[in-house]
Amino acid sequence: MKKINFNELLKNINFRFYLLLLALIIFGLILSINSEDKSLFGPSTGKVVMNLPLKASEMDYQNLNQEFTNNEMMKDLPKDTKILLRFYNFNSGFRQWEKSYVFNLGTFVEGSTEDYDLLLYMHSSYLAALNSYSVCSIIKSANKNGDLGVEMNLPATKALWKYRSLLKYKSCL
């Protein structure tokens, strides 16, 4: 096995070029992280902007209850559905949970459960848009902006079979 001599390696022009390129990339990443916009690669242009408040109001939560009980997508859910819907904000610099709702047996009530099929969590600022936008467009926007999360307590195949009636709404994601 040949021993690598680091001094000879530094004399090699290709190696120096790649070393310089690597240093420039690292330097560029450090500059972009320390810039005013805290995203890794500069300002994002792919986010959907809806002019939303930082936190949902009590009226927004009341509208949510009305919107979800009258929504076609919710009516298409199986009867034995158990979905936990949680809302959060980042007003204090970290995630703060605001309110939780359980959709079970066709009812939509404030509360929580550990025995859910699906957990959906979303930034509460999207609730203000319920008066102006459809539920589907709000879900699309939250998903695109990274403000929507989904967890399943069911195996994927069982969840797909149980919620197959929602396949017609796959464009909402």
Please give a structural write-up.
The chain has 173 residues and is an alpha+beta fold. The chain has 2 domains: 1-45, no CATH class; 58-172, Nonspecific Lipid-transfer Protein, Chain A, CATH 3.30.1050. Helices cover 35% and strands 18% of the residues. It has 6 helices and 5 strands, in the order ααααββββαβα. The protein has helices spanning 6-11, 13-33, 58-70, 72-75, 135-144, 156-162, and strands at residues 82-89, 96-104, 107-110, 118-123, 148-152. A 5-stranded mixed β-sheet has the order 3-2-1-4-5. β1 (82-89) and β2 (96-104) form a beta hairpin. The longest helix has 21 residues, at 13-33. It is extended, with a radius of gyration of 24 Å. Residues 33-46 have low confidence and may be disordered.
